[in-house]
Write a structure and sequence with these properties.
Length: about 625
C-alpha cells in the first residue's frame, strides 16, 4: 500500500528532543499509538459539533457516531501512550476536549501536519497523500471535508447510505495517517539506534478490519429534530412583524437579494440600485431592516479607502470580525480591498434609512442556518430552501426558481425576527456598531419605553408616571446639560435646542442616544424622555429589539399652549414650537408603536400607564405592525 517515496525533500539534521522521545515511544509501543480523526458539522468550535469520531488502536479500527456512547473511545484514549492526528492540535483535540468532558487524552500528541512540514510536505492531508501517491480513497470519488458535512445532513434526512459513506471517508483519513507517518519517518532518515526494527504504522492505522464498517441505523429523533418558527417566534413581537432582509452586493450592477418577511411569510426578489432598495424598503413600512453587509468601520478608521491616515494603526478588521475569527468562523475583514465598496455601500444605505427613522441591524445569517440545522452558505440552493421551509418560512420561493442571494436575504430577515424576539447576541462594543447573531440562549435585556411628542404635550408627565411604577428615568437633555456645563453655558431651553441642533447636524445623533442610554446602564426597566429625531427611534429599536416601545404623546394645540403658559409664562410658545428641533418631532408619530392622546387629564394618563406596565409584564412589547 505504501508507495516508493521521493527523497528529494530537505532532511533535517537533527530532531528536537521531545520529538525523538515521542517517536521512540511510537516504535516501542506501536500497539498503543492512537490514530484519530473527527468529522464535524463545520469548522467553528463555537457553533459546530462532532458528528463522527474514528480511530485505530491495537490493530482495531473503530467509529462512534453522534448520539451513541463514546465510552469505547474514552477507554482507548486513556490507554494509549501517543495520539497521532493531522491538524489535530488546532482542530480535533479542541473539539474532543470540548464535547467529551473529562476525557483523558494521551500525554504525547504528534500532529502530522507539523511533522510533514519538517520534511517539506505542505498543504492538507489529501494534498500530501497525492504527493506521496498514497491510495486509500477508492470508491470515495471527490469527497472532501465540505462534502462530509453534506453527507451528515443527508443522513439526518433519512439517507443511511450517506452515513456509511461518511464513515468510509473517515476511516480513509485515519488509515492514510499511518502511511504518511511512515513516509515522513523515511524522509527523516532516523538513526538505527532509535528504530532498530522496521515498524509499519500503516498496519496499525489501517488494520485488517479498517474497511469493515459498523452497522448503521436511521438517525435518532433527537438528532433530526429542529426548531420551528411557531415554536420559537410566533408568540413574540416577531410573530407579526414586518422585516426587510437584504443580502447586499458591492455594486449596483449586480442585484442584491431583497426579502420581505411578514411573520413567517416571505417573498424575495433581486434589486439593483440604491434608490430602488430604499424605495422598496420604505414602501414595506418595516419594523426592522436586517442587512448582510458590514455597516460600520473599525474603531479609529474614518474612510474605507487605504488612504485613511489611521489605516496602519487601526487596521482593516472590526472587533466583531475578530470575535468571529476567534470562534472559528471564516469572515472577511470589512476593509479588505475587495470588501471596501460593499462596506461603503452598506454604511450609506443604513445611514439613509436610519435618518428616516427605520431601524437597521447588521446581521450574520450563518448562525440562523445553524439553528435551522442546515449546512452554511455554499451547500446549494436546495439545502437553504429545505431549511427555510422546514423552519416554517412560507412563500412562493419554495416553488420558484430563485437565486442564492434572494434566499440569503430571507435568512437575513430571519435574523431580524430573532432580534425582535430578543434571541440574539450583539458582537462588538461601544466603540463599534454591533453585529447581530441569533442566540437561542440569549438573556433578555431591559424593557425600555421611549417617549416623543411636541412641547407641552405631557411627555414628561407620562415618563414620570412610569418612573413612579419602577422605571428608571432618563432624558436627552441631561446629556445636553452636561455638555453645556463643560462649555460654561447657561442651562436654558434656547441653549439646549441650539446644542441639540448642532449634534444632529454633525451626524452625532446616535452618539447622543448612546450617551443618554449609558446614564441608566444596568437598569431592568427604562423610560427615555424626549425622542426628537427618527434616528432616536431607530437607535433604540435596534438596541432593544422587541423590548422597546415607542409612545408618541399628542395633545390639542390649545391645551398645549395653556400648559406651556402655566409652566413657562405667556410668551415664547409659538417661537419654541417652530424651532428647528421641535419642527421635526411630528415625523416621529408614524414611527411610534403607539400614539396616546393626552387630552383627558391625569387620571386617564395614569390609567394608560398602568395598562402599559401590565402589557409589558404579561406579553412584552408588541411590534409596530401588531
Amino acid at each position: 500500500m505504501l508507495k516508493k517515496v521521493d527523497h528529494s525533500f530537505k532532511i533535517p539534521k537533527a530532531l528536537p528532543r521531545h520529538l525523538r522521545e515521542q517517536l521512540a515511544l511510537c516504535h516501542e509501543y506501536p500497539q498503543d499509538v492512537l490514530f484519530v480523526d473527527i468529522e464535524t458539522t463545520g469548522l467553528s468550535h463555537y457553533y459546530d459539533e462532532i458528528t463522527i469520531i474514528g480511530w485505530s488502536l491495537g490493530g482495531r479500527a473503530s467509529t462512534v457516531v453522534k448520539g451513541a456512547s463514546a465510552d469505547d473511545f474514552r477507554r482507548d484514549a486513556a490507554r494509549a501512550k501517543v495520539m497521532v492526528t493531522f491538524n489535530g492540535i488546532r482542530f480535533d483535540q479542541r473539539f474532543i476536549l470540548q464535547e467529551l468532558k473529562g476525557i483523558e487524552l494521551p500525554k504525547h500528541h504528534i500532529d502530522l501536519m507539523y511533522l510533514c512540514r519538517r520534511v517539506g510536505l505542505k498543504g492538507g492531508q489529501k494534498a500530501i497523500e497525492r504527493e506521496l501517491k498514497l491510495s486509500f480513497r477508492d470508491g470515495l470519488g471527490d469527497v472532501d471535508g465540505f462534502a462530509a458535512v453534506l453527507l451528515w445532513h443527508e443522513y439526518l434526512r433519512g439517507d443511511v447510505a450517506a452515513l456509511e459513506r461518511l464513515i468510509h471517508y473517515n476511516r480513509a483519513d485515519v488509515g492514510a495517517m499511518g502511511a504518511i507517518f511512515d513516509s515522513v519517518l523515511q524522509l527523516f532518515a532516523v538513526e538505527r539506534d532509535l528504530f532498530q526494527a522496521s515498524t509499519k504504522f500503516v498496519e496499525w492505522a489501517a488494520p485488517a478490519n479498517w474497511l469493515m464498517l459498523p452497522e448503521v441505523s436511521p438517525a435518532a429523533s433527537h438528532l433530526t429534530a429542529a426548531p420551528h418558527f411557531d415554536e420559537l417566534l410566533s408568540d413574540t413581537p416577531a410573530g407579526n412583524a414586518t422585516i426587510v432582509g437584504i443580502d447586499l452586493t458591492g455594486s449596483e450592477a449586480k442585484g442584491s437579494g431583497w426579502s420581505l418577511l411578514q411573520g413567517s411569510d416571505a417573498e424575495c426578489r433581486l434589486v439593483f440600485t440604491d434608490a430602488d432598495l430604499i424605495a422598496q424598503t420604505l414602501a414595506a413600512k418595516p419594523d426592522l431592516v436586517s442587512i448582510d453587509s458590514p455597516l460600520s468601520l473599525p474603531f479609529g478608521r474614518t474612510i474605507v479607502e487605504d488612504s485613511d491616515p489611521g489605516r496602519d494603526e487601526y487596521g482593516i478588521m472590526r472587533r466583531c470580525e475578530r470575535e468571529l475569527k476567534r470562534r472559528g468562523v471564516n469572515v472577511y475583514p470589512c476593509l479588505l480591498p475587495s470588501m471596501q465598496k460593499l462596506t461603503a455601500r452598506g454604511i450609506r444605505l443604513a445611514n439613509t434609512l436610519r435618518q428616516l427613522g427605520v431601524p437597521v441591524i447588521e446581521s450574520y445569517p450563518g448562525a440562523a442556518q445553524d439553528i435551522m440545522r442546515i449546512p452554511r452558505k455554499g451547500a446549494g440552493i436546495e439545502w437553504l430552501k429545505l431549511g427555510l421551509g422546514r423552519f416554517g418560512i412560507r412563500g412562493s420561493y419554495l416553488e420558484e426558481n430563485v437565486s442564492h442571494d434572494e434566499l440569503d436575504a430571507i435568512t437575513s430577515a430571519l435574523v431580524g425576527s430573532f432580534h425582535l424576539a430578543n434571541l440574539t447576541e450583539a458582537l462588538g462594543d461601544s466603540d463599534e456598531a454591533p453585529l447581530i447573531i441569533p442566540d437561542l440562549n440569549a438573556k433578555p435585556g431591559p424593557f425600555t419605553v421611549g417617549i416623543s411628542g411636541p412641547i407641552a404635550s405631557g411627555k414628561t408627565s407620562f415618563a414620570r408616571e412610569l418612573e413612579a411604577r419602577g422605571f428608571t428615568y432618563v432624558r436627552f437633555s441631561q446629556v445636553l446639560d452636561d455638555l453645556l456645563r463643560e462649555r460654561g453655558l447657561e442651562l436654558t431651553r434656547e441653549n439646549r435646542q441650539k446644542l441639540g441642533k448642532e449634534i444632529n447636524s454633525s451626524g452625532k445623533q446616535r452618539w447622543l442616544a448612546e450617551q443618554t442610554l449609558n446614564r441608566v446602564e444596568g437598569s431592568n426597566r427604562i423610560v427615555i424622555d424626549g425622542l426628537r429625531f427618527g434616528e432616536d427611534h431607530a437607535f433604540f429599536s435596534e438596541h432593544f429589539g422587541g423590548r422597546f416601545k415607542h409612545i408618541y404623546i399628542q395633545t390639542d394645540d390649545g391645551l398645549r399652549r395653556s400648559r406651556y403658559s402655566e409652566r413657562d409664562g405667556n410668551d415664547g410658545f409659538d417661537e419654541v414650537s417652530s424651532s428647528d428641533v421641535e419642527s421635526g418631532v411630528a415625523l416621529l408619530k408614524p414611527l411610534a408603536h403607539e400614539t396616546f392622546s393626552n387630552d383627558g387629564g391625569r387620571d386617564a394618563l395614569s390609567k394608560r400607564v398602568a395598562a402599559i406596565v401590565q402589557e409589558i409584564e404579561e406579553r412584552g412589547c408588541q411590534s409596530q405592525s401588531s
